[in-house]
Write the structure tokens for this entry.
Amino acid sequence: MTDRLRLTVLGAGYLGITHAACMASLGFDVLGVDTDPGKVAALNAGRLPIHEPGLDELVRAGRDGGRLEFTTSYQRAAAFGDVHFVCAGTPPQRASDRADLSQVQACIATLAPLLDRPCLIAGKSTVPVGTARRLAAELAAVRGDAELAWNPEFLREGSAVADTLAPDRIVAGVTSRRAEATLRQVYAQPLAAGTPFFATGLETAELAKVAANSFLATKISFINAMAELCEATGGDVGALARILGADPRIGSAFLRPGLGFGGGCLPKDIRAFVAWAEDIKGGEALGFLREVDAINLRRRARTADLASELIGPDLAGLPVCVLGAAFKPGSDDVRDSPALDVAQILHGMGAQVTVYDPVAVPNARRSCPELRYATTMTEAAQHAQLVLLLTEWSEFAGLSPDRLSDVVARRNIIDARNVLDPVVWRAAGWNYRALGVAAGPADVGTSHGGATHQG
Ligand code: UGA
């Protein structure tokens, strides 16, 4: 290997594009590889297939500085790289919750026979425990001088660039000191800035990723289970979360109550973890994750129930405004989006649903063409019987009722992310409902009713 490592990144999805651009910004020469020629051409022209704050600037800077290029050629990748990062997706299999590893396997199987010198292949994708050891054995059978490590990624969509450049921790699942030294060389800059580095075996590294996502999902579902109890008893889950979060042993992060988690990671990772545990006869250890999943999905059903409470059991033909389609703010990702799921449930109940999202409408339209979409918030809210805030974009969180009061047909709002001030909205004549908060005095007796816009 040369002193100045050359890196390839296999798979140009959220993870791969971010990793490639960030490594280039750290000064490495990086070749990104994807089998989709259209995506590769767009990336080389500086156009990104995803919305991620700060990423397009980084890709353009890498391209302009000559440190970053994308290709479809594994031949070029094999000749180029000292370290090959595998960033392929691991979606659920069609007929089960197990992870579909075909893309990860294809990356390594395509690359391995083309390698002509010692190198390190570092997997970053989220995989079931045991995958790395199996892939390492398969790799050794093809190329004895290529080594496999597992280096899981903990970045969050919406803050992916910052998370990659200044991670909380770096985990290196390795089977040799040489592999550890190579990864330390790759991450020299964050390590110098104080990022903790954990060198472990392959299995611990794989577990670190799914265990972290499972814990985060559990925290969210815990507070949402408390929200159910608050709804039943008249408690306020927002206040409860603040009280719990003030205990440093609990902490307030990932304790935001509301519509729950979605996206391309947490839901599929906890399900794949459970499926994997059952396969190794360890299902009992992860039985609680089924409940975590169930609590999470119940929030969506509860939101639809609240809609019925506000505007009547028969939603047929009623205009409803949905604010938010992305699974979280800062992202255009609609995979397993709680917001879109609720929009679809309401559509299924007969409502005439119009969705507005600052960036995710094109993806939402592709995945849910049956819904209506608006280009502004006020357009979406025209004549609405009910407004639902389902993704906490700052544009929505900072919303003043005046923006919508004269646009809607009836002043009913469900704040499913608990970000609006109920006092302000109620003072403006709105029926304000949130998850985990019992109806306010002003809302009592307004079921199926709601303040009517007087115009
Ligand atoms: C998650 C993890 O946070 C990352 O560490 C991990 O690398 C990533 O998955 C992955 O496996 O690739 P991400 O899915 O981008 O990152 O988003 P999160 O910030 O974790 O949010 C997930 C969901 O939980 C969102 O729908 C969000 O709205 C929801 N959430 C989050 C809550 O409902 N409450 C909270 O308190 C926090």
In short: The longest helix spans residues 202-233. The radius of gyration is 24 Å.
